[in-house]
Amino acid sequence: MYYSTHLVVGATIGIATGHPLKAFIAGLASHIIMDLIPHRDHEKVINCLIDVMGGSLLFALWFFAYRPGLSCLVGSVAGVLPDIEIPLYYYRLISKRYFPSHSGWIPHRKAGGRFGLLVQLLTIVGMGIWVIS
Fold it and tell me: Sorted alphabetically, which keywords does the UniProt record give (predicted)?
């Protein structure tokens, strides 16, 4: 999944739980669940950087405008936290990946092309609709 997708799902879960510790645990768990859904991952580093910077900027603007609370922030951070090991592994700063859906312990389902992108767009839109309703 893209960074932005994990960020939005984690934030939504944080709002739903209303408790920072529950938001953290559920945000981490959401990363595994989201990786089980067939999806598309970035193939180029530049696309990943644009996703991380753009997603973080839009989230920060939304967060400070609407102030959804600490649980939302904690959930969003927990949702994206496992992906920190991806660039560390890519640039050989760590020798293996540890998070269950990255290490192969739990399947990381892939779907290429438009379908993989559509899954993520629908996820983000669905979470957005839930938050504003």
Answer: Membrane, Transmembrane, Transmembrane helix
